[in-house]
Automatic annotation (TrEMBL), chains A, B:
Pfam families: PadR, Vir_act_alpha_C. This is PadR family transcriptional regulator. Residues 110-140 form a coiled coil. Residues 6-77 form the Transcription regulator PadR N-terminal domain. Keywords: Coiled coil.
Length: 170, 170
DNA sequence: TAGCGCATGTAATATGTTACATGATTTC
DNA sequence: GAAATCATGTAACATATTACATGCGCTA
């Protein structure tokens, strides 16, 4: 996932690996806060794949590698953004996409979020079925984690619902 | 984390790798649903470390390996359970512990959850500070992911608070 | 006899962290 | 002149997934 987040940052402007880390701390740390040990190898990979280019410069006596995104990089990024969200893959993945949804036409963003909400509703139904099955055999802690799961998904679906409404209004 | 979940299941009774997978589907799938590709290697590892023992049997013509937990395995499991929860390590990790909190004296469980709630409150404060910093430069989607983070932690902390009250009552 | 459920396992791959190594500039 | 910040990078490790390979027993 980190490669897409990096591409997303590079959509705005050219950055060094260090810059990317700083931006993460101040913007995405809430759902994604990669270490240098994953940022630098990811940049290498992206360069080898021809999605970005590095320019080596010396600024104030400091050696730097400034990365810029290519057209192909932009395409790969938008393609990732347009893939439907899979809420099963941790909510961090979803937030990573929503974070960059400004790059998508509003109608597409709306459609993706509507789909997501439907999927989560189905999942809630499944968990509620599971609950009736196991509530007699599970202890209070065990069943509580299931209740947490249900309540959590209800919170998430409520939040996305409100977000969607705001989005439609403007 | 999977090794502790496996130890937790084995606290109740002896199980095969296949059994463990089935139990996960029907109880923890909501926050942990490991594949066979991680269950079997984990069982091997636990056996090599002397925390569990395998007994090879043939039942209804089917070859099986039934695993039982050792005293050392129980100690390692309880030790893991008694470590304070770190809410930074995904909420799955927290649910995994709460799931097995029935193995802990009630007062300890309460203390751990109280600590957790305090930590999350601090994190919420940090995110709110971050919000005032970036709200002028972030776009609607970018800032929304931060709002999600804050709302999400508030939901989580509220849920744990209610859970704690229920726990204290009984 | 085909397919499903039970049952175990491995190899390739993905994805990341932590700790370490290095060295410059800026700030106190 | 010490400490913090800027800046890049690698090696070892952790953790898990996916896909594949194997084979038995039961049921329609």
């Amino acid at each position: 996932m980190i490669k897409f987040v990096i591409l997303g940052f590079l959509m705005h402007k050219e950055l060094t690996g260090y810059d990317i880390k700083q931006i993460m701390i101040h913007s995405t740390s809430n759902f994604m806060n990669a270490s240098f040990g994953s940022i630098y190898p990811a940049l290498d990979r992206l360069e080898k794949d021809g999605l970005i280019t590095a320019t080596k410069i010396i600024e104030k006596g400091k050696y730097k590698k400034v990365y810029a995104i290519h057209e192909t990089g932009k395409e790969v990024f938008i393609q990732w953004l347009e893939e439907p969200m899979d809420f099963m893959k941790s909510y961090e993945d979803i937030l990573a996409k929503i974070f960059f949804y400004g790059h998508l036409p509003k109608e597409k963003a709306i459609r993706h979020i509507e789909h997501l909400i439907e999927d989560i509703h189905k999942k809630i139904e499944n968990l509620e079925k599971l609950e009736t099955k196991i509530k007699d055999i599970a202890d209070r802690f065990e069943i509580s984690t299931l209740y947490f799961g249900i309540d959590h998904l209800k919170f998430v679906v409520g939040w996305y619902g409100r977000f969607l409404n705001d989005l439609k209004k403007i």
